[in-house]
Design goal:
This protein has 342 residues and is of the alpha/beta class. Helices cover 30% and strands 13% of the residues. The protein folds into two domains: 207 residues, Rossmann fold, CATH 3.40.50; 84 residues, no CATH class. The chain contains eleven helices and nine strands. The longest helix has 16 residues. It starts with 5 loop residues before the first strand and ends in a 13-residue tail after the last helix.
Amino acid sequence: MITRPHKTVHGFAGIGWSEVGLDNEIGFEIDAAACRTRIGAGHETIRWDVTSFPTWIYKGCDLDKVDSPPCPGFGKSGNKLGLYDLPRVHQAIDDLSRGKDTRAKIGAACLDWRSILTAEPMRWHYDLMPQRIAMEQVPSVLPVWEQYANILRRWGYSAATGVRDAADYGLWQTRKRAILIASRIAEVQLPAPTHGGPGQPPHLSMAEGIGWGYTQRPAPTVTGGGTATGGAEPFGNGTRQAMARAIGTVDEQGRPLWIDRGIPLRQPTAKERAEGKEPKPNLRPTIAECAALQGFRPDLVFHGSAGERHLIIGNAVPPTFAAPILQAAGIIRPRRQLAAVA
């Protein structure tokens, strides 16, 4: 009997989905620091713009397809120009589903050049008809995933879409995402939450995830990320504001708590010194704390500058969240005890 090779093709790869364990995965990633991070973690990687890679190479494979297209144009923290591009994205997806590639023309008309990337997975779906599919994006992209699902159902797939919160699956932060899973070999449905419901473990706090309140740092007063939508900024102003509220309290002697809690100080700029401003606590979490908040294993090494590492971590699908999604799609069975699962 001739067996067909199996491959998991991972577009816009980053690091998150891969850390759960994808069978025979090949990840396409264009960012150099993200590629170094993936390769260092043992994930097969091609540094390439996935939108220009020929799909015919994988014809004859039993294929699974995983994608998380860039979300800044659609997220609340970005310029939101992608929201105005949604009709164009819908048109490009419809065209691709009929074998007509209009990405270049439609992409040139988009207000945010990244918007058209959300149509890219349909090129692979049409050309290769993957066995199983999983995709993730910010909640405002749900109508696009629903369009994908309707097309896939016409082709004989079982498909499910919806918005799910990573906190409901054991992550240390609130992070809502639009999810699509599909299969042409089995019925699928989105995974049921594992935390926060009746008879389930409670939601986990950000303080628990990174030790604030149990080590030298005061506990934040929020469990969510930097914004209501998560994204590449779960470690930004919201975190600092929460820390500031905690630091604003005093001990029994009336001293600010941060004095004895080992929090490093941010020195004032020359302009601030001229204005008489004093050093302030530096409230930005460390790279290790950011990675912990995203559910990454503690020994994973992130490459690049500090800014690049923050982006790689923040842009990733948290492994704790990826595992139940991929399992529901039938793509994997989780192989590793994930850090944030209680």
